[in-house]
């Protein structure tokens, strides 16, 4: 839902980031307002996951330039846990397994950390079990997964459902979902997409990172962006994704060549199409 | 609890920092770091002790013995004593000599139990208390054929003292023992815990030893499968921080075929602490078709902490399965980030991961251990 007057939740300006002195993000610009659903697409290795991890505060990445405002505040000043508590959520492309840490307890500790920030009271084990059972329904997940260690031995699809369960519990303002659709079977894709739609509201925003139109058939994006070589090369409406489906990414190389020839600055301004 | 100063030794007046009284009690000089088995083990916490003996309370006086089990008098225990130590080649080990010398010099409780049925569970608190000095305990367990017992030992200290515990265990054919120990001390206290077990064919031993908080802890479980064909499951967990030192030397020998060993030793070292693990497994020619697996996993939490871990497999028999592995790692940064990205503060996230690491061993302790909150004591908070 696009409302030009809706408050800006996330404002990324000329964001540059490196890992071990190797530049990966080379000037990303992106503005996300409340109520919007954005999709970021792009070739393997173009920097999509890096962008998501930099936003979440992964310590392996160093921000070397630019800024990120979250509800007007400097997001980059916050620790990863503070970012989560104030409502930023990253659904990982590859959720890690944590043997020995109970999924249920993990979810409870995480939920209570977010609730404390929102000024709500902590949930005890009983109250939390009620809440978690209700939210399990969003992703139609078997309660048996609560008894297991975090993601341990979960199938690829089960891990992704567990990510959306966490999102349903944490009720983020800005959710970044990194290839949440990969590894899901057809039914699971429908269930997960339904969950994301159910959680979307005029007050929050979602950034979907995906390779495939099939997810965007189920979750309609307001904006689609194409990342290439660490920047957003093109932005458009939902029809940009359909166009990519037809044309692939061949045009990306020409565009990058043109940018390289025409100087650096042009590359930092996304080109509007459609 | 009574404390009596020891008589001045022949080498002169004994005082704190002077280890002569300990050498006199043991009848042998203190181990030196030139000895391979003591290479990493600094004994300064021991030599700092006040030279006096503590007479600890008798732990068996405080409990009702379950059915299937009886306490043996010193005279009926006498024929059994020394057997397991001799069988595990440890009668001459310095901590054992110290324990024997101290028991001879001063009445110390002999906890001798004969198990003749399905005895259920027993929880014994072996407390050195807060008095300065040396407290000595001696335990003998004789499990008759087909009998079983679940025993939790809780050696503890809350003061500047050393707790010496020598346990001898004899398992007859078909006997099953679940032996747990949960040992908590202070920075000023030392633990010397020596456990010698002889297993007959068809017996089963589950031994889990957990130690935390001791200035110096030396644990030596030693097991002989006399005729092979027995099952030994060993679990160990030591947690050390500050300037603490925890040292476990295990030794398992198979003197017959088809014995099984399943061993996991875990260690957590923080601050400037030092953790040592040495796991000896002896498989002589007679021990064909032995199946032994040993794994050591250590968690290094600080750059100044040190972990030394060494498997020591001596395999002569040719038809055996012996696997061993050792890992030393830090908290996994991707796991930490995942937890933090869900709003869990980094120290709480680290705590959760450490807890998970420890629980893998703690859950093998006898059920009685849970009521003593081992995690809370080991890690500071839940
Ligand atoms: N921690 C890291 N160490 C080294 N290189 C990294 C690291 N993180 C990312 N990179 C490199 O940065 C580039 C961008 O990676 P990123 O994971 O962001 O791509 P992506 O767009 O998410 O790709 P995909 O579609 O395959 O998921 C790649 O070349 C990758 O190898
Ligand atoms: Mg990616």
Question: Please, could you describe this protein's structure?
Answer:
The complex is a heterodimer of chains A (274) and B (382). Chain A is an alpha/beta fold and 274 residues long. Helices cover 38% and strands 28% of the residues of chain A. Chain A has nine helices and 13 strands. Chain A has helices at residues 48-56, 80-85, 103-118, 125-139, 156-170, 186-199, 213-218, 238-247, 250-261; strands at residues 8-19, 22-33, 37-42, 62-70, 73-74, 88-91, 98-102, 149-150, 174-178, 205-209, 223-228, 231-236, 271-272. In chain A, the strands form three sheets. A seven-stranded mixed β-sheet of chain A has the order 6-9-10-3-11-12-13, sandwiched between helices. In chain A, strands 2-1-4-5 form a four-stranded antiparallel β-sheet, with helices on one face. In chain A, α4 packs across α5 and α5 packs parallel to α6 (186-199). The two termini of chain A are 18 Å apart. The radius of gyration of chain B is 20 Å and the shape is globular. Chain B has helices at residues 20-26, 44-47, 74-77, 83-87, 94-105, 333-340, 346-362, 374-379, and strands at residues 2-5, 52-55, 69-71, 110-115, 118-127, 133-143, 148-156, 161-171, 176-184, 190-199, 204-212, 216-225, 231-240, 245-254, 260-269, 274-283, 291-300, 306-315, 321-329. In chain B, α1 crosses α5. Chain B contains eight helices and 19 strands. Chain B is an alpha/beta fold. Classes of the chains: A alpha/beta (274), B alpha/beta (382). The complex binds adenosine-5'-triphosphate (ATP) and magnesium ion. Residues 19, 24, 42, 44-50, 60, 93 of chain A line the site of adenosine-5'-triphosphate (ATP). Magnesium ion binds next to α1 of chain A.
């Amino acid at each position: 839902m696009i409302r030009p007057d809706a408050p800006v939740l996330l404002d990324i300006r000329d964001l540059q980031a490196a890992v071990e002195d190797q530049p990966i993000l080379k000037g990303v610009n992106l503005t996300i307002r409340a109520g919007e659903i954005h999709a970021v697409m792009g070739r393997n290795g173009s920097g999509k996951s890096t962008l998501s991890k930099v936003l979440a505060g992964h310590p392996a990445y160093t921000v070397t330039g630019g800024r990120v405002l979250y509800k007007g505040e400097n997001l980059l000043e916050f620790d990863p846990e503070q970012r989560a508590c104030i409502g930023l959520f990253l659904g990982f492309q590859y959720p890690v397994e944590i043997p020995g840490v109970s999924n249920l307890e993990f979810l409870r500790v995480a939920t209570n950390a977010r609730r404390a920030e929102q000024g709500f009271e902590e949930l005890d084990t009983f109250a939390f079990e009620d809440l978690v059972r209700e939210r399990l329904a969003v992703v139609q997940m078997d309660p048996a997964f609560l008894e297991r260690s975090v993601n341990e031995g979960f199938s690829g699809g089960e891990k992704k459902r567990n990510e959306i369960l966490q999102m349903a519990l944490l009720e983020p303002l800005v959710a970044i979902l990194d290839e949440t659709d990969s590894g899901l079977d057809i039914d699971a894709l429908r269930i997960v997409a339904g969950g994301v739609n159910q959680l979307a509201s005029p007050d929050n925003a979602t950034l979907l990172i995906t390779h495939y139109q099939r997810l965007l058939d189920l979750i309609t994006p307001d904006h689609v962006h194409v990342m290439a070589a660490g920047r957003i090369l093109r932005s458009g409406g939902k029809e940009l994704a359909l166009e990519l489906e037809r044309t692939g990414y061949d045009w990306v190389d020409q565009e990058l060549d043109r940018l390289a020839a025409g100087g650096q600055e042009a590359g930092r301004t996304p080109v509007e199409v459609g | 609890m009574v404390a009596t100063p020891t008589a001045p030794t022949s080498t002169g007046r004994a005082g704190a920092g002077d280890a002569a009284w300990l050498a006199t009690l043991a009848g042998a000089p203190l181990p030196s770091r030139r000895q391979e088995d003591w290479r990493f083990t600094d004994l300064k916490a021991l030599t700092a002790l006040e030279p006096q003996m503590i007479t600890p309370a008798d732990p068996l006086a405080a409990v009702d013995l379950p059915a299937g089990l009886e306490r043996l008098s010193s005279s009926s225990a006498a024929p059994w004593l020394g057997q397991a130590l001799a069988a595990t080649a440890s009668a001459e080990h310095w901590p054992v000599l110290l324990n024997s010398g101290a028991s001879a010099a001063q009445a110390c409780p002999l906890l001798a139990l004969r198990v003749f049925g399905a005895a259920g569970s027993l929880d014994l608190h072996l407390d050195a208390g807060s008095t300065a000095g040396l407290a000595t305990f001696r335990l003998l367990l004789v499990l008759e054929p087909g009998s079983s017992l679940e025993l939790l030992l809780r050696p503890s200290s809350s003061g500047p003292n050393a707790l010496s515990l020598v346990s001898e265990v004899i398992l007859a054919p078909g006997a099953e023992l679940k032996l747990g120990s949960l040992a908590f001390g202070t920075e000023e206290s030392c633990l010397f815990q020596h456990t010698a077990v002889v297993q007959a064919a068809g017996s089963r031993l589950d031994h889990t030893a957990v130690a935390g908080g001791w200035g110096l802890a030396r644990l030596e479980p030693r097991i002989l499968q006399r005729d092979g064909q027995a099952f030994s499951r060993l679990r160990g967990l030591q947690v050390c921080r500050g300037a603490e030192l925890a040292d476990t030397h295990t030794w398992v020998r198979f003197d017959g075929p088809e014995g099984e060993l399943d061993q996991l030793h875990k260690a957590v070292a923080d601050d400037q602490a030092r953790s040592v693990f040495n796991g000896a497994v002896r498989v002589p020619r007679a021990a064909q078709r032995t199946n032994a697996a040993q794994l050591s996993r250590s968690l290094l939490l600080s750059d100044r902490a040190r972990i030394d871990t060494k498997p020591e497999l001596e395999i002569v028999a040719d038809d055996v399965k012996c696997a061993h592995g050792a890992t030393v790692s830090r908290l996994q940064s991707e796991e930490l980030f995942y937890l933090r990205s869900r709003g869990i503060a980094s120290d709480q996230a680290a705590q959760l991961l450490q807890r998970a690491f420890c629980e893998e061993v703690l859950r093998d302790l006898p059920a009685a251990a849970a009521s003593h909150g081992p995690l809370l004591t080991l890690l500071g908070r839940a």
